[in-house]
Amino acid sequence: SGDKQGDSGQTAQKFIKQHDQNNDGSLSRDELPAALRDGFEDMDANKDGKLSADELRSFASRLVFVPVPVE
Asked: Quick one: which of 40, 42, 18, 39 has its CA closest to 28?
């Protein structure tokens, strides 16, 4: 559905909305699911202590995940 950049942008925004407890539009380390907290410093590219949608997208694009089409 649509181009990948648009899809990943919507996915990052949805992820933030799901976990953003103080509704500031970004995620602090404490707002991240526990499984992702260890990687927070790697994801926080500008080191401001919170993750933006751009930082989430950038991190996700570096993950080695290739979806396999179902035939």
From this structure: 40
Q: What is the pLDDT of residue 3?
A: 42
CA distance 40 to 30: 10
SS3 state of residue 51: strand
> What pTM does this model have?
0.76
Query: What pLDDT is attached to residue 4?
Result: 46
CA-to-CA separations, 6 to 17, 25, 68, in angstroms, rounded? 17, 18, 20
Q: Cα separations (Å) of 52 from 31, 69, 70?
A: 12, 30, 32
Measured between alpha carbons, how far apart are the two ends of the chain, in Å?
Answer: 17
